[in-house]
Amino acid sequence: MIAKAPVPGRVKTRLTPPYTPEQAAALAEAALADTLAELGRVPAGRRLLVLDGEPGDWLLPGWQVVPQGPGGLDERLAAAFALAPPDVPALLVGMDTPQLRAQSLAAPLAAAARGGVDAWYGPATDGGFWALGLARPTAALAQQLLLGVPMSTDRTGAVLLERLSTAGLTVHQLPALTDVDTAASAAEVATLAPHTRFAEQWRSLKVTGGVPS
Predict the structure, then answer these.
(1) What is the maximum span of the chain, computed from C-alpha positions, in angstroms?
(2) Could you give the CA distance from residue 61 to residue 49 in angstroms, rounded to a whole number?
(3) 51 in Cβ contact with 66 (< 8 Å)
(4) N vs C: which end of the chain shows fewer Cβ within 10 Å?
């Protein structure tokens, strides 16, 4: 998992306004905690949190924290894959989809379902992506796929899919999910997953129509 520590003013800045930096950080922490918990239910030999910042009491047991590398997001994503052992499947997930359910990953990543699959791709509804997995990750392959991909645009996912196709990889597409980036998407995700910590935090901020009251 790749994430940014939930520090006010440094995380989820597109939520401010209407949220304050402190409220945005609280929502980010809840999303981070939800995602860590769900990923913890997916069978895995190793769980890495590639973190920008310092871990807090939201960190769950069983996770090894490593710092993000320098550079743009494309470079940092590629560097994260370089941490994975070669020839062992690796999946990289962001912190923006607290509605994620473990079963949506456990089933397609199970050994019985991996035959013939080279990569897993999780599209985001805004045109980006929330997950990328490689069956045989290497630093060179990650760089080939990710370096130069424009990040945080409505073309990000399409460019990455084109890279995957050009590399000759067979891709299993995961369910499309909505990233929490704006007040409107926060309201949508909280409504879709009402029993999450994220939804509880969202409700505590007394939002009406996605805007704090």
Answers:
(1) 51
(2) 11
(3) yes
(4) C
